[in-house]
């Protein structure tokens, strides 16, 4: 409601979202670290990430806005009061699952944004997976990247599954890691390649996830 009533620009709306997310993470004593090379402003790309926990979502919303110009999220969030109006102000698109025509319209809108140089953030799994790992990526982000002939960048989020498991209301203190992977080219690809590209992006994200899990195991007491 505060975003709807007070935010005059997407940046103002995002600042409110980021501040609220940081407060949540601070209360839970969860910090967020970023590694890898984020895309530069005006580069026109699709950033495709995983998420296993609401803590992952909060981490993303707290720190990713300097690296994302537009985002897409699950239409499920629209169950919250004022959410559609708030996300509209923040340039966050809600993907209407089960509505092919609506999804196609959203994808075409996203393609135009990426072609104009915007960096689009998109959840690859289409939902919060709740699992310790990277679930199968859907093809939405790949279609946007292919149709705009822009690179797709795998973005790994690690830690939320352990700090705040899906379905739990008790958080553990700790750290969530966000890592930007190497861009994957879409030059010369068409819609028939979307599934293969989604699988390739998922595999790159899963590899980074496995690396962090191995590191965590080495330093665990």
Write the layout of secondary structure elements.
Blueprint: H1 2-6, H2 10-27, E1 30-35, E2 45-49, H3 54-63, E3 70-74, H4 83-89, E4 92-95, H5 100-115, E5 119-123, H6 140-148, E6 152-158, H7 160-163, E7 174-180, H8 194-219
Parallel strand pairs: 1-7, 2-5, 2-6, 3-4, 3-5
Antiparallel strand pairs: 6-7
List keywords for this structure.
alpha/beta; 221 residues
Name the structural class. Answer: alpha/beta
**What proportion strand?**
15-25%
Sum up the overall morphology in one term: globular
* Radius of gyration, in angstroms, nearest whole number: 17 Å
Instruction: Give the tally of β-strands.
Output: 7
Number of helices: 8
The SSE string, one letter per element, is HHEEHEHEHEHEHEH
Spatial order of strands in the largest sheet: 1-7-6-2-5-3-4
User: Mean pLDDT, rounded to whole units?
Assistant: 93
Determine the N-to-C terminus distance: 44 Å
Which assembly state applies to the chains in this document?
A: single chain
Largest sheet: 7 strands, mixed
What is the helical fraction, as a range of percent? 40-55%
Low-confidence stretches: none
């Amino acid at each position: 409601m505060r975003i709807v009533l007070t935010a005059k620009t997407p940046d103002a709306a995002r600042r409110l979202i980021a501040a609220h997310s940081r407060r949540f993470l601070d209360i839970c004593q969860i910090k967020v670290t970023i590694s890898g090379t984020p895309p530069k402003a005006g580069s026109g790309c699709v950033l495709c990430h995983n998420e296993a926990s609401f803590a992952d979502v909060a981490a993303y919303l707290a720190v990713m806005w300097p690296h994302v110009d537009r985002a897409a999220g699950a239409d499920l969030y629209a169950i919250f009061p004022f959410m559609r109006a708030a996300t509209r102000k923040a340039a966050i698109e809600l993907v209407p699952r089960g509505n092919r025509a609506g999804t196609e319209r959203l994808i075409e809108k996203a393609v135009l944004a990426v072609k104009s140089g915007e960096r689009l953030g998109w959840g690859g799994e289409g939902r919060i997976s709740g699992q310790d790992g990277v679930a199968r990526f859907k093809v939405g982000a790949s279609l946007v990247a292919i149709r705009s002939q822009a690179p797709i960048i795998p973005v790994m989020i690690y830690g939320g599954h352990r700090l705040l498991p899906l379905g739990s209301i008790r958080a553990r203190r700790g750290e969530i890691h966000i890592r930007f992977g190497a861009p994957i080219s879409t030059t010369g690809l068409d819609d028939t390649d979307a599934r293969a590209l989604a699988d390739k992006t998922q595999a790159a994200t899963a590899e980074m996830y496995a690396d962090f899990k191995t590191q965590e195991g080495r330093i665990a007491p």
